[in-house]
Amino acid sequence: MRIPATVEIMQIEILEHEPPYRVGVIIGSLARESINRKLAGALEKVAPSEFEFFEISYADLPLYSYDYDADYPQVALDFKAAVASADAVLFVTPEYNRSIPGALKNAIDWGSRPWGQNAWADKPTGVIGASAGAIGTALAQQSLRATLSFLNARQMTAPEAYIRFTPGLIEADGTITEDRTEAFLRNFMEKFFEHTLRVLTVIPRP
Length: 206
Ligand SMILES: Cc1cc2nc3c(=O)[nH]c(=O)nc-3n(C[C@H](O)[C@H](O)[C@H](O)COP(=O)(O)O)c2cc1C
What we know:
binds flavin mononucleotide; alpha/beta; 206 residues
């Protein structure tokens, strides 16, 4: 059977896309001593070497309104450009009142607009979070996953990771002090790497 021309083009694009793969990290907390920021540092440390990380900041975004759609502010254009430049996006979020923090939702809304210019579409994404409580951000992650689904992001659905944060679990330099947790998070990042490659193979970046 003849291979359609579009398939040949896709194969060339995949070969051109070599490591490092740039992961944009979005930390769902604005707190200075955020435990999720600590978790993000730990994930970076145990990740496959083909990954390179940068933080996508959203703290300076105003509250979104569609009044901005006709003339997006520079800070929002920069945010969207950072998302667009990432090969994959990793959300590391706390749970606030059984959902994601408002500032994170605001950032996701900015990324999704103006209509037809959704920065999250087809983006390989991963979701993880830490809380002091026993459910380890499970409800926040469900809420985030619903939003990412609607926005057509390509989510890693398994493994899931709900981290119960205890004092001393992660040191300031990102070292994980518990072997079991370290192995779990290392596996999570390996699977996220596989997921990213799989998505980029099927849907090469524009
Ligand atoms: C406004 C607010 C709401 C919270 N709601 C929840 C919650 O629904 N579930 C939970 O497990 N922890 C909740 N917590 C506790 C957080 O898990 C804890 O503050 C954690 O440190 C937040 O992560 P961060 O340090 O990365 O911001 C809440 C904390 C705040 C400040």
